[in-house]
Design brief:
The chain has two helices and six strands. The chain is of the alpha/beta class. The protein has a six-stranded mixed β-sheet, with helices on both faces. It is globular and about 35 Å long.
Length: 135
């Protein structure tokens, strides 16, 4: 994580909720969000397919079961809207969970960025760090 104390760290987590993501993959994304949110003062969970479908704010790692189990969206995929929303929310870092299948090529937001890509896929842009997630 960036050089922030967890008491002031604001994490933006974008979860690709498009039709190319299986329910099993989406559930795995949200399970990871549960653990990530415990390391920040606030975590914005941005559910996005080709647009931002919903934003949930998780404070101090506490979220309702519905927040961490409900899928919002199931259309096409564009990554830029969720990245823009995370920047607008003042996030210190963005972590994007997805499969890399996107209609757009996102622009580097110039803040720490982590792509969490399913099954060895590549992200839709060449910035940030890549973590592989097998689901």
């Amino acid at each position: 994580f960036p050089s922030h104390d967890s008491s002031t760290l604001v994490i933006g987590v974008a979860a690709d909720s498009s039709g190319s993501i299986s329910d099993e993959q989406y559930a795995a994304f949200l399970n990871e969000v549960k653990f990530l949110s415990k390391n920040s003062s606030a975590t914005y969970l941005v559910h996005a397919d080709d647009a931002v479908q919903r934003i949930d704010k998780i404070k101090n790692g506490k979220a309702s079961e519905a927040v961490l189990t409900t899928r919002h969206g199931c259309g096409g995929t564009s990554y830029q809207p969720a990245i823009d929303k995370c920047k607008a929310l003042g996030c210190d870092i963005i972590i994007y969970f997805g499969d890399g299948d996107s209609a757009d090529t996102p622009v580097d937001p110039k803040i720490p960025f982590i792509w969490v890509m399913t099954n060895g896929r590549q992200p839709p842009a060449n910035f940030g760090q890549i973590i592989n997630m097998t689901v």
